[in-house]
């Protein structure tokens, strides 16, 4: 372990640079939305305050907990495969998948509730931002789930070991990034709108 | 397979379609992008033909709108942005740094197919061709009935391809340099491509989200850009130019890189001011992100922001000027040979100075108000993009043609084409500076009769230009089979790609070379020539 | 084992911070609501970055790759605000 630690462990440098560069593009993709949010939040503080109260703060908080926990299970999966513990890795990824699905399920409930109350993306600027931001984030969750499903299949075929598990590492980084975005979306939309 | 077998040895569709060889992918990009150069150029000829007459002629004003939109969008997104990075960049980055391939060969092929699928989606949109201009400004683009949604989706795919290519290059340059290839021994083309890739990676996602928001506006009625819903159309322009301004440096930086290779080679002199050229590429890349507001001076942006953006815009001229001075200093007292790559490189410097300096007129707040949205602007960006980037591309194509194909170009025809293109280009676009100063607005199908004579001149110029380009491409195609067999190093250049056979073997290098010197020791026998 | 333990500790901290930010949101602090929420969110993000994303053990180059884009996020927000705030 000690020698690997020095090299940064896990994936080769090229893969790490590659995924971090990809995350940079993701950051700026959401960056446009954060810019729009900032501009409109400053222009229409009253609208944002009044509209954000219509969101279900507790469901939002619950979803935050779900997603943070999925990050934990992902981190554990990576730590496991670095030590060659394949069963633990599989369990970690499957748990992450389940939590991701739970996140989407809760999101789905929230959206259904919003629609039932006549709140649509076109209703006003706040809900426009809310649906676009959570929608784009949700698409990222779905994409992450697809990749994790692939990892589980590959894991069943015994493809990963302590020596080679680059796909697991970079998927992990991607997943934590999805978590990071939510860490900001949650307060911006639910708490201080 | 034998290591010395050329990368072109395998034949057949599958050997190309499924290749992960960066050289073949580069060639595929080269063909695809130049196809759109020719189509876009043909559309430009139609536009010029229409403008031969000041009144209604040939086709309707709406068709004119559609044609100039297609000309602009095709040239920008499908030709000039990917033309140098994805084709010559793909082909030569690994060769120039002494690597066998890019860092992620599979991703590289995937990028190409993303690019092609983007193109296919855009082609679907021709059912209801868009007439928004290549800038897609809201609210017009959000409301009109043309296939803006389809095009946005297609351009999103093209953008993703551009991002992944940039990502691949950044990681390649960081991790795959040959032993001894330190940063200050890198060929300057690599520095240019590095700056380019950084811009691609950091700015393209913003145009991605812009297109997504435009689609959201059209499909779900989200009102970010719609004043009726409290949105702000200028927000679209901020997003659009946060991408599209830096991206003009995606176009020009690789061309500047090519010039930095060609000039010392054909002047037989070490490049002057290596570090200044290298760092100015990064400086341009960085400053390019600070100046986007200069496209919006007359759009209703605040005066304060206008002053700030105008002020910052001038900074971009500094590293650009440094490069030009360094190239000229490299030429000074060199033993210059005017082979076709060098002719194009010198043309680049000449035309780009005109394009660059007129850019300052547009970047300064006061004069921009006068010439904005006139033909002055059209002339300016054609001098930078065609006079700059495309001339740099032509220089690169003539320089590297022997390496890519293994054949020499017909130098005589290359020079005929050069004359035609340079004369044709200036006759086409120089009158537009004058037209713009006289107040002729761009993007209109008709114009007052007082602008007639200069428009006729420009149209005649476009014919010369077209003939020159046809000759050049004919030379490219004819030389594929009939050109003289190219030696490994016809220009006696010192960069690594010339130290392998032409065309290069599939694995590039039989043994990864160990680099002991920078590649610009021209005119000296050995040793590092950077000292006094 | 040390890894798992530190991950769980980080997770507990993240959950506590989530609780804190939700709690604070019920108080009316005026502008400070936004400030507190963003500081807490950034603390959480830093924890995720340092521990879950291994930035604590990363080589400098990768850390640079992770931080550099934040500058551009700031640029697009500040540049746009320089217009919309002064109109």
Task: Walk me through what this model shows.
The complex is a heterotrimer of chains A (193), B (532) and C (87). Chain A is mostly helical. Chain A has helices spanning 2-6, 13-43, 45-52, 57-82, 86-116, 125-156, 166-191. In chain A, helix 2 runs antiparallel to helix 6 (125-156), helix 4 (57-82) runs antiparallel to helix 5 and helix 6 runs antiparallel to helix 7. Chain A is elongated and about 55 Å long. Chain B has 15 helices and no strands. Chain C has 87 residues and is an all-alpha fold. Chain C has three helices and no strands. Chain C has helices spanning 2-25, 31-52, 60-84. In chain C, helix 1 runs antiparallel to helix 2. Chain C is flat, with a radius of gyration of 17 Å. The N and C termini of chain C lie far apart (57 Å). Classes of the chains: A mainly alpha (193), B mainly alpha (532), C mainly alpha (87). Chains A and C meet through helix 2, helix 4 and helix 7 of A and helix 1, helix 2 and helix 3 of C.
Integer-rounded radius of gyration of chain A: 19 Å
Provide a count of the helices of chain A.
7
What is the count of DSSP helices of chain C, taking H or I runs of 4+ residues?
3
Count the strands of chain A?
Answer: 0
| Cα separation of the termini of chain A | 46 Å
What is the correct CATH architecture of chain A? Up-down Bundle
Biggest interface? A-C, 47 and 46 residues
Helix-strand pattern of chain C: HHH
Which regions of chain C have little confidence, pLDDT < 50, spanning 5+ residues?
A: none
What radius of gyration of chain C results from the CA coordinates?
A: 17 Å
Task: State the total count of DSSP E strands of chain C.
Answer: 0
Whole-Å distance between the termini of chain C? Answer: 57 Å
Oligomer: heterotrimer
Shape of chain A: elongated
Name of the CATH homologous superfamily of chain A: Cytochrome c oxidase, subunit III, four-helix bundle
């Amino acid at each position: 372990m000690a020698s690997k630690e020095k090299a940064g462990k896990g994936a080769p440098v090229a893969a790490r640079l590659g995924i971090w560069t990809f995350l940079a593009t993701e950051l700026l993709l959401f960056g446009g939305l954060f810019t729009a949010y900032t501009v409109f939040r400053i222009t229409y503080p009253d609208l944002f305050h009044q509209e954000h109260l219509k969101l279900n703060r507790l469901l939002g908080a619950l979803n935050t907990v779900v997603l943070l926990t999925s990050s934990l299970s992902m981190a554990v999966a990576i730590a496991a495969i670095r030590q060659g513990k394949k069963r633990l890795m599989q369990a970690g990824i499957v748990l992450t998948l389940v939590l991701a699905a739970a996140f989407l399920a809760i999101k789905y409930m929230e959206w259904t509730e919003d629609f039932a109350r006549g709140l649509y993306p076109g209703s006003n600027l706040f809900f426009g931002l809310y649906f676009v931001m959570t929608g784009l984030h949700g698409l990222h969750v779905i994409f992450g789930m697809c990749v994790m499903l692939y990892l589980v299949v590959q894991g069943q075929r015994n493809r990963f070991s302590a020596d080679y598990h680059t796909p697991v590492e970079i998927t992990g980084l991607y997943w934590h990034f999805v978590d990071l975005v939510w860490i900001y979306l949650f307060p911006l939309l639910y708490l201080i709108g | 397979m034998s290591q010395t077998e050329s990368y072109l040895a395998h034949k057949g569709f599958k050997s190309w379609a499924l290749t992960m060889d960066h050289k073949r992918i580069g060639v595929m990009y080269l063909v695809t992008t130049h196809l759109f150069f020719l189509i876009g150029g043909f559309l430009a000829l139609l536009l010029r033909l229409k403008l031969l007459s000041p009144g209604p002629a040939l086709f309707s004003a709406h068709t004119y709108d559609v044609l100039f939109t297609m000309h602009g969008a095709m040239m920008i997104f499908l030709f000039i942005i990917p033309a140098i990075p994805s084709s010559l960049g793909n082909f030569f980055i690994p060769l120039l740094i002494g690597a066998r391939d890019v860092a992620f060969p599979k991703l590289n092929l995937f990028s190409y197919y993303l690019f092609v699928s983007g193109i296919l989606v855009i082609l679907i949109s021709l059912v209801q061709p868009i007439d928004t201009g290549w800038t897609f400004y809201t609210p017009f683009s959000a409301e009109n009935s043309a296939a803006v949604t389809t095009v946005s989706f297609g351009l999103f795919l093209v953008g993703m391809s551009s991002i992944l290519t940039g990502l691949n290059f950044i990681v390649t340059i960081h991790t795959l340099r040959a032993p001894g290839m330190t940063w200050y021994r890198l060929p300057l083309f690599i520095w240019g491509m590095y700056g380019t890739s950084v811009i691609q990676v950091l700015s393209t996602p913003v145009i991605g989200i812009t297109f997504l928001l435009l689609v959201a506006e059209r499909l779900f009625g989200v009102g970010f850009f719609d004043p009726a819903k409290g949105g702000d159309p200028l927000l679209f322009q901020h997003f659009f130019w946060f991408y599209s301004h830096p991206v003009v440096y995606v176009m020009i930086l690789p061309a500047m890189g090519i010039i930095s290779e060609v000039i010392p080679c054909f002047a037989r002199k070490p490049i002057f001011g290596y570090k200044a050229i290298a760092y100015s590429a990064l400086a341009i890349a960085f400053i390019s992100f600070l100046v986007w507001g200069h496209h919006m001076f007359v759009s209703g942006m605040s005066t304060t922001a206008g002053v700030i953006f105008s002020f910052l815009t001038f900074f971009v001229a500094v590293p650009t000027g440094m490069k030009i001075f360094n190239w000229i200093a490299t030429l000074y007292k060199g033993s210059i040979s005017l082979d076709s790559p060098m002719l194009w490189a010198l043309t680049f410097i000449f035309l780009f100075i005109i394009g660059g300096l007129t850019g300052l007129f547009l970047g300064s707040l006061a004069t921009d108000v006068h010439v904005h949205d006139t033909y002055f602007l059209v002339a300016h960006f054609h001098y930078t993009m065609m006079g700059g980037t495309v001339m740099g591309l032509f220089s690169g194509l003539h320089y590297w043609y022997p390496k890519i194909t293994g054949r020499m170009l017909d130098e005589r025809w290359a020079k005929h084409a050069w004359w035609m293109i340079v004369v044709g280009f200036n006759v086409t676009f120089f009158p537009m500076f004058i037209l713009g100063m006289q107040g002729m607005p761009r993007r209109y199908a008709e114009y007052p009769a007082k602008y007639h004579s200069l428009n006729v001149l420009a149209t005649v110029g476009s014919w010369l230009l077209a003939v020159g380009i046809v000759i050049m491409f004919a030379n490219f195609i004819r030389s594929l089979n009939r050109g003289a067999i190219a030696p490994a190093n016809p220009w006696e250049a010192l960069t690594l790609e010339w130290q392998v056979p032409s065309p290069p073997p599939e694995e590039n290098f039989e043994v990864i070379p160990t680099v002991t010197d920078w590649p610009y020791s021209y005119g000296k026998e050995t040793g590092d020539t950077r000292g006094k | 084992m040390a890894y798992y333990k530190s991950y769980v500790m980080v997770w507990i901290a993240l959950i506590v911070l989530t609780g804190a930010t939700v709690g604070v949101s019920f108080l009316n602090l005026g502008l400070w609501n936004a400030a507190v929420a963003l500081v807490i969110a950034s603390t959480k993000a830093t924890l995720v970055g340092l521990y879950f994303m291994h930035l604590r053990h990363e080589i400098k180059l990768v850390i640079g790759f992770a931080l550099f884009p934040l500058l551009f996020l700031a640029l697009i927000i500040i540049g746009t605000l320089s217009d919309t705030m002064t109109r």
